[in-house]
Design a protein that fits this description.
- It is built from three helices and 26 strands.
- It is globular.
- It has 307 residues and is mainly beta.
């Protein structure tokens, strides 16, 4: 019984502190769900709040000067990623609450990620056609920014190097119990998209995208609607490319901005209280902002398919 009372007192104290701290703050920064991430008082002291997702419970509060509360990175694992691979970067450091991650190199896709004060788990997808080079990853919070480098290495298929081609990506076959040989994915825009779709070229392969929203529902319905039409949800990188081309007047797509819409991007979010799949939407205000939706919430949004 004492344990239950103590836990209740901690929760109430964290809620009241969050309200009082927000009201007394000279500056405050919140996430898209309205949860307080950082506050700065009249003396310039920064408070960083770690919140339990979907609740008003504050798990921890860290304070310091603006200089002390700058985001810091102490390690990144793995330090190198092969072209044509998908992995999760584990970024260790401090003051990482509310961090946004950006890769300053076109072609590399960073999916939705989960973060804690001292760690970020960032899924990253490197196209097969990406040339070996050092890549800068920028981590930004409302208090400051920092950078870290990873190395993209050559892809090795069957012990040999990947032949460089201008407009195709070569990959190994993936048969059931037997090798199907190699195939080619064109990086140029498809010329034979189905009616109601338009073609684009991309680093990860050319694709077709629907001109406008064709459905509305939760993620399960979104996947189903695309699948029964012989299509799929657009990858994050595909949707972003189409949005940018539309904004530049190079594509006739409709309703690319103004409301969230489904993409095929997702990750698995886990903290001390829950584990759930997060799906990612784009399009509310620009071509970059992402909005997570947990599987259990079954939120409904519009969307379009790719092929």
């Amino acid at each position: 019984m004492r344990c239950v009372v103590l836990i209740t007192q901690i929760i109430l104290a964290s809620i009241m502190f969050g309200i009082a701290g927000d009201a007394a703050a000279k500056e405050s920064f919140k996430d898209e769900a309205g949860e307080l991430l950082y506050s700065i008082d009249d003396d310039g002291i920064v408070s960083m709040f770690e919140n339990s997702p979907g609740t008003d419970v504050t798990l921890s509060v860290t304070r310091g000067t603006r200089e002390q509360m700058q985001p810091q990175i102490t390690s990144i694992t793995p330090a190198s990623v092969a072209a044509g691979s998908y992995t999760v970067l584990k970024i260790e450091g401090k003051n990482l609450v509310g961090a946004k991650v950006k890769v300053n190199t076109p072609g590399i896709e960073v999916s939705g990620y989960s973060g804690k004060p001292k760690r970020l788990d960032v899924p990253i997808n490197v196209p097969l056609s990406f040339s070996p080079q050092d890549v800068t990853i920028e981590v930004t919070t409302p208090i400051g920014a920092t950078k870290v480098m990873i190395k993209v290495t050559e892809v090795q298929i069957g012990g040999g190097g990947m032949p460089k081609r201008d407009d195709v990506i070569t990959h190994p076959g993936q048969g059931y119990g037997a090798d199907e040989g190699s195939g080619a994915i064109a990086t140029t825009a498809p010329m034979n998209c189905p009616p109601g779709m338009v073609g684009l070229g991309g680093e990860g392969g050319g694709f077709c995208i629907e001109l406008d929203h064709t459905f509305k529902g939760d993620f399960k319905k979104a996947e189903h609607n695309c699948a029964i039409a012989g299509k799929r949800l657009c990858r994050l990188s595909e949707w972003q490319l189409a949005c940018e081309k539309t904004a530049a007047g190079k594509l006739p797509l409709k309703n690319m901005r103004g409301q969230w819409e489904w993409t095929g991007g997702f990750d698995v979010y886990q903290d001390d209280t829950q584990q759930d799949t997060r799906y990612f939407m784009m399009g509310k205000s620009d071509c970059e902002a992402q909005h997570p939706s947990f599987r259990l919430h079954k939120e409904e949004f519009p969307g379009r398919c790719c092929k």
